[in-house]
Amino acid sequence: MPNAGFKSNILMGQQVAWDTALKSTEILGHIWEVKSLGIRNRGPKATSTRYKNNPSASGLIEMMFHAEGDLGFDAHAENMGIWLLQAMMGSATPTKWNATPVSVLTAATWAASGAKDSLDTQPSATTPACNPCKLIIAFDTNVPAPQVYTGTVVITGTDQNDLPLTETVTFTAEATKTTAFYFKTVDATGITINMTPVNATDTITITGEKNTYSHVIILGDDILEGMTMEILKGTIPSVAVGMLINNFRFDIGDIIGLTFSMMGKRLWNRYKLGTADANPVTSTTGTSTSGFNRPSTDVFPAWGIRLLIDGGATAVGVASGSLSINNNLRFPVRYRGARTEPKPIRGDNREILFTPSIDYDTVNSDFDAKSMANGSVALQMVCACSPYGGAEYLMTFTLPRAQLQDFPDPEVSDYGEVLQELPFRVIRSAGASTSDELTVTIQNTKATYATIS
Q1: For residues 348 and 219, what is the distance between their CA atoms, to the nearest angstrom?
Q2: 329 near 346, Cβ under 8 Å?
Q3: The whole model's pTM is what?
Q4: Facing residues of 247 across strands?
Q5: Using only C-alpha atoms, what is the Rg of the chain?
Q6: CB-based contacts of 413: which residues, under 8 Å, 6+ apart?
Q7: Which of 435, 434, 415, 417 is CA-nearest to residue 426?
Q8: Is 37 within 8 Å of 233 (Cβ atoms)?
Q9: What is the DSSP string of 240-302?
Q10: Among 45, 272, 386, 445, which has the highest number of CB atoms less than 10 A from its own CB?
Q11: Which of 153, 156, 154, 152 has the alpha carbon at shortest distance from 188?
């Protein structure tokens, strides 16, 4: 029976040592759905050229080999940070936004089922802005026991896209519950409480919490230890060890796509992850994925992109473009009694390129003059994902110094708008002791990228 490609996916985890595979219990609890998957062993064999009284080729000789290939993903709102960490060889610092809930409805009493209570404030009228936010509904537990709250609380308002949003929260004897949706505003006429008070003095409090984290990912200069990946091609698994991201590419299309070119120690074909130790074990089926999470359908659309130039207050529209990181890794030449390659080293400078296409008009900067003066430009690209009733997801690329590699004066080739392609090369600050040419900030609901569950 044919092996179907739509069944392909990846499990992965960050290694402690480059040449040691992780156990299945150490793999991050997430299934990565791919758009393209080309990782395989590479190692062409050689033929001796000796003279042997015969014009025919002799047998092939086995040479050193390693794993390499490409992976392609949609840019998911929640979990792409772990891949960006690997691509940037960096580290991340998470900060929770609006950790202290803000009041929406404070200590209101209700007299009968179906009553409405007016709001004290709106979720968006807080500092820092809690917009959008989940709503936390809590009943007063200071009244004499037992406190049994059974019924529903109906909340009507709008989401972050200003679309109508209604959620019915059902209580079955709980004192506190949180909405599944994120609200930007709540109907000013009130919140409907469909339950009878236990006591005449019962109160309800509703607070809003942004419930998102900001992860700041900075570049690192040292080469990481790589990843262990179980790669399922159709239904047949393989285990890749010591996989490092050599090239990363961010492409602006209808959906923002990420492509990673990888290299690593080796691929164990038709193996799955080990359980008792760190060695892969032979199998014709992959590791059980029960309990693993699939990525959400929330991905970054291209319409959510805006570009700021030199700190300008007005965002510039981007027609297309890409941002790439080339870590310029290579395997050192070492013959050491083993067919697998040693850990990669840097073969050249890391290169970061950003090539957006924007309108060629009188509003945007005179980039030909910038190129002529060999000056630098500060850039910030912000990508937003605004799912219905969901959190506000952001992915921000900050490039403090970018220089044009060529004059961007455009050609006119059709009746439509005239666009100029800006071939920027991103550089570190003069005299900087650490790499500062790129910082990525991701806002989502993940508390940390040390683990993903």
Answers
A1: 16
A2: yes
A3: 0.87
A4: 261, 326
A5: 27
A6: none
A7: 435
A8: yes
A9: EEEEEEEEEEEEESSB-EEEEEEEESEEEETEE--SSSSS-EE-SSPPP-TTPBPPPS-B-BG
A10: 272
A11: 156
List CB contacts of 384: < 8 A, sequence separation 6 or more: 300, 304, 305, 306, 392, 393, 394
Report yes or no: 199 and 144 within 8 Å, Cβ to Cβ: yes
Three-state secondary-structure class, residue 114: coil
Distance CA 201, CA 111 (A): 9
> For residues 4 and 267, is the Cβ–Cβ distance under 8 A?
no
pLDDT for 157-215, tens place per residue? 999 888 999 999 999 888 889 999 999 888 877 788 888 776 767 778 888 888 888 88
Coil/strand/helix, residue 406: coil
Lowest mean pLDDT among 61-70, 221-230, 240-249, 361-370: 361-370
Task: List the one residue out of 224, 276, 289, 213 whose CA is nearest residue 84.
Answer: 224
- Cα gap 344→357, rounded to integer Å: 34
Q: Are 299 and 76 in contact (CB under 8 A)?
A: yes
Residue 265 has which token pair?
């120690």
Convert 383-401 to b/e letters by CB count within 10 Å (16 or more is b). bbbbbebbbbbbbbbbbbb
- DSSP assignment of 6-41 equals GG-EEEEEE-SSTT-PPPGGGS-SBPBP-SEE--EE
3-state secondary structure of 369: helix
Eight-state DSSP code of residue 127: S
- What does the block give as tokens for 399? 């490039």
Indicate the residue type of 321. G
